[in-house]
Fold each of these.
Amino acid sequence: MICDYLALRSYFFWRSNNISVYDPTRQTFRAMPKYSMRGVPDIIVIKEGKFIGLEVKTKSGTLSEGQEYFQELCMKHNAEYHIVKSIEDVQAIGL
């Protein structure tokens, strides 16, 4: 729903899937590629040259350790990082 909202508003964004692929032959998850990061936000928006990370959570959802680290990096580098649970949350941050 949030991606549909962003698309209707013509934002430049993408949905990021950064979960390791399961290898049924080895019955384990494959290693993440070199230089990939855990905790990358679910949705990345570029607005007026600014990086905005949107981590989508359920009402009771919490950040993983990797997501907390990514949030810290965003704050350190003057990028935005928001935890959103609804379209209303996205609107409240100015999108």
Amino acid sequence: MLADRRFKAIKIGLMRSKEFGLLRGVAMHGNTYITTDVPTAATNGRDCWFNPDFLFKDVKNEGDKGAAFVMVHEWLHKAGMHLVTYRRLAEQHAMRANMATDYWINDRIQVADPQRILTEMPIDENGKAIGLYDPKYHEWTVKRIFRELEQEQAGGGGEGEGESEGDAGFDNHDWEGAKKLNAEDNEKLTEDIKQAIRQGLHADAKAGAGGLKDALGLGELVTPKISWRALLRMFMNSACRKKEQSTWRRPNRRFLHQDVIMPTLQGNSINEVVIARDTSGSMFFKDRLRDVTSEILGIVKAVSIDKIHFIDWDGRVESHEIYSSDELTAAPAMKTATGGGGTDPTCVSDYLKEKGIKPDCVIMLTDGKINSWGNWTVPILWAITNDTKITAPVGKTIQID
């Protein structure tokens, strides 16, 4: 009973604080269990479990700052929807997924409470930190941290599972428990969590200058994001949609002044496009070449294109073949890539000029490790796959996630 009262006092203090008050709705959502059934703390993305012996005996921080840190940590797993969003990463390597989400969370807690007024990374009886924190991961995404840990393990030449249990953080991520939630449950859980965050942000906005602060970055978790595929289709529609079918939904304005209503033409296909795949040496790392190839298939399945100039390039144009959308999906070029040299997209713009190719638009798929971006006379879209955000100085840029 004493542990329960102590836990509730810390929880109320955190929910009333300007540093962590925006989490109050998340903290109240789901069930909270104070139990020795878990070694330390745990969550399945909806419910949380806390071991009182760990919080109030094993954690040796002054006062209850260590226990408060653990509580906020579990709430942020829920707020970030980690056990739903990163399930695929966990299927690849559960411990690495645990570590990536923990690094992401612990950085945000340190930023929200830099003076350690309410929270402090838990320490053991020897003064050693219990948990994962590295300032280099500041503002990194979970996926980027995961890939970095993967590269570090590969660089170490290890054959086993990689990271040890002692490096896996202080809590348990119940991936199996999260799997038991069906699609409908997951959808409701996601919306409930987002609504809890929105309510906190709304109350904060009404409070004005004296309100809470979103140092945890909760706003970005509920901000609608436009998928890069939607942006791609918008670009292609605006740049090169071929007019084919008539529709009465939007009358042709050229004849309205004559009191004549005529249909407009609505396109369902695109005439001629260049799809240029970066096959330079850097594209063979982190599955980038595989990623952009799969995205090419997604493009041609989503949009009907009459003539596709499919180009592989590195420091020069390595191959050039012509397909329709239907032909490209089964083309041998999808399974093989030619290249491996340097990266110079000017070779593509020069090649198109030399061959007299005048497409409706050009789509360049690359990792963005480029010094010179070329001179283009047609609409160009750069689809960039890279953990670091890169924006091309010419044309439009979208990030492939």
